[in-house]
Amino acid sequence: MIRTLLAVTRRDLLLGMRQRGDLANVLLFFVIVVVMFPLGVGPDKDMLRQIAPGIVWVAALLSAILSLGRLFALDHADGTLEQILISGQPLSVAVLGKISAHWLMTGAPITLLSLLLAQFFDLPAVPTVTLAASLLLGTPALSLIGAVGAALTLGLRGGGVLVTLLVLPLYVPILICGALAVESSASGLSPQPYLMVLGGLSLGAAALAPWAIAAALRVSLE
Amino acid sequence: MHWASWQDFWAMGGSGPFVWGAYGMAALALLAEITLVRARLRRARDTVLRTAPWPKEPQP
Amino acid sequence: MQIETARPSSFGFHRFAAPPEFYRLAGRLVPWFGSLAAVLAVFGLYLGFFVAPTDFQQGEVYRIIFIHVPAAWMSMFIYAIMAFWAGVGLAFNTRMSSMWACALAPTGALMTFLALWTGALWGRPAWGTYWAWDARMTSYLILLFLYIGFMALHAAIDDPRRADRAAGVLALVGVVNLPIIYFSVQWWNSLHQGASISLTRAPTMAATMLEAMFVMMFALWMYSIAAALARARAILLERERRSGWAQAAAKE
Question: Do C67 and B22 touch (CB under 8 A)?
Fold first, then answer.
């Protein structure tokens, strides 16, 4: 099973790296959205420092949703997904492999970028680290839950917007905990409870989502 | 029964527009739902009548 | 190829799982549930407006509670029932279960909308603002999106079986997440506002207020059943329009 997991992850990473442009677009989107907000609300440092966690997190959510389009659609288009389905390997393991690759190509870079973007909001050092930590712990859940939406809407017309509608309500707990973690850190309190909840949400999603995704894929591919 | 008059009843102690705005929307929404479901049933019936049934199996 | 639905001649309730029997039974039940709902609503509104006293703090405007709380409760109750039947349809491959979930969804969404609307109109006079991002109202808003997502996903898929099952997966995922969403929103709300105000906090309830509220809850429950049964009939005709029983039933 581990071999399947690693094989699928490696394959998706290779394919993703061959089309680096797509991934760069997602990260570019992330940066642009974050930069748009100060342009919209004004450069007041104190206000920006206050709303920074929410902005970065919302931008991360939207970027995650944007990147979901590639998760299953490409393999579905050339029949690889069906091959995986009938390959005899447990579908949930293959799914976990694809999502791991997806996270390495979106969630991980977003986490690193947040360290840079925090400077646009003049976030002090400790909340900046907390921001990155919260994204590190929360983005896996974003990939996992988003994959459920991507699997359900495979091949549908208007899929991209529909996925957004389906998945954003489910993202709310992650958003809330992520933003609260940074805010509590900024006001001098320990962000530990929020970070632990975030980690718990990601672990819970890792445990449960693969089943839902496998079921959704079977529904979409039959 | 503690309304001094119908005037008082409609006024609802000053918050009449809010109370009746709430109940009014509720009545409107429920009536709209009933109307829409009935229309849907009627349309479904019409569609069935216009649709050809499954062809019968040829009898041996 | 005539696909005749089975007509078991049993006395058990199972026979109503077949479309023609369900269609007929639902047709007979709708007027009963509807009339019951109407009677209960009249009684409940009478209790609420003419028996329940004026509230010490909120005056008369609290009377919105008699429609707000029942609508809110039904919105959550219907979602749970809908998810249950969608799950049954997924697990046992029964079309009727999924059909029933589809019949419930719009009614549930309507109840959620009413909860939001009446809550906003209660909030303005009682707390000074139509919307205050309090925990419960925000959760109802997200619930509305969950309902709309269910209906949108179902509508976007042409194949009815795939649509049923995809929406079923979504409903189950939603129902599992609903408590998580609710508690996280509560957490969010309490931490951002210090003492958490509830925009639509009920006054200390006199017995008559509680009675009126429960009667109205029952009324909306009966109404929801009637509306869903009626909608289910339409859905059945739409789905089975080529079958013999539907052709016969439409001519009646």
Answer: yes
